């Protein structure tokens, strides 16, 4: 008996030692993957600044600066078995690979254009699911806190861009040329912030508004001074951006916040405090000439553009439902495999025709269907809509269980995942990152009800083995 124990105990010790090594290795891998995801986020926010101000001679290569990070994160996560394959991700990657082949041999025939277009589906789309399984809810909240802190200097920057001439250094465009602003109103231009184009500014503050509203309902999770300053920054950014898209998106996020009161009345007091704070801040800001000038420019742009596009109904229907329905209706007139993946991007347009613009369709659904054909294109649209709807329904369930975070992120993430233009790198980045954060917020709560997620299970098991 003693001899048997003398054999078993060393075997157990070796087994425990090997298990501890495996746990330690996985924890280190997860830590590195999180670092890679954070690098992706900061590059999303500041790669435009590199392309405009600091490394303008490398503006072209920097366009895909995030791609090596994406490939490394995907490879490391799947190599170490830290994420499970998603049916939607596998389907989208398959469409990307088929589209790559058909574009080269049956479409436009340009290898580089095809690769540029296919990388969106093959690499960036699966990244959402990796972020969703690697990040925890606390990681998502950390992103929110940092976003709110960044919004404060970002607002100061767009105010300077708004009042500075287009020849100023801060208004340089990609490649270091003057004129980074885009047409606005009353001789003022829409400022791009740190981004390469003004849509980045709209996307950033739309993303930021989700966290601003969330933290007003959960003000113990952030410093009050940061929350108040970020709220002021968001209010100022809306007129200074001269962006109707930002205005409508903030309205949608506010409506999501109000809708949460129906399911969770406990948030009523927080909503009243928020409304009071916003009204008070708006009254104070209305007495400052800088803010009133920006508000006048925004109002002028809003009225002029609405009248040109047939009023508010025309704006919403043409930009949202109209583009979608038109894309589906025109799908029957396209080649079976489309004109080739990547052709609808600006890079594809430059490589194929030498000019920038939309060779196929300005709308995202129209671009996908035109590039991939009616079967593959509509399948890609179906996958995006399925994922967006799944996030929404799961967010409602989490809201009923007391978790508001996924619901507020979905206020921006639904449209970002479903129909934002992924041909534009900044729009693609915000869509992928926001979708990943929603999945992370959902998975974190869901796994607490059943079992600990892998990253926490590793930590617990490692503690027990010690």
How big a fraction of the residues is strand? Answer: under 5%
The helix count comes to: 17
What are the secondary-structure elements, in order, as H or E? Answer: HHHHHEEHHHHHHHHHHHH
- Residue windows where pLDDT falls under 50 for at least 5 positions: 445-455, 457-466
The structure class reads mainly alpha
- End-to-end CA span: 27 Å
Helix content: over 70%
Using the CA coordinates, give the radius of gyration: 24 Å
* Sheet having the most strands: 2 strands, antiparallel
Name the strands of the widest sheet in spatial order: 1-2
Tally the beta strands. Answer: 2
Task: Please give a structural write-up.
It is built from 17 helices and two strands. The chain has 466 residues and is mainly α. The chain has a two-stranded antiparallel ribbon with strand order 1-2. Helix 3 (87-106) packs antiparallel against helix 14 and helix 6 (198-217) runs parallel beside helix 8 (244-263). It starts with a helix and ends with a helix. Residues 445-455 and 457-466 have low confidence and may be disordered.
Key words describing this protein structure:
single chain, 466 residues, mainly alpha, two-stranded antiparallel sheet, 17 helices, disordered C terminus
Write a compact overview of the structure shown.
By secondary structure, the protein is an all-alpha fold. The protein has helices spanning about 1-55, 65-80, 85-105, 110-135, 135-165, 200-215, 225-240, 245-265, 270-285, 290-310, 310-330, 345-355, 365-370, 375-400, 405-420, 425-450, 455-465; strands spanning about 180-185, 190.
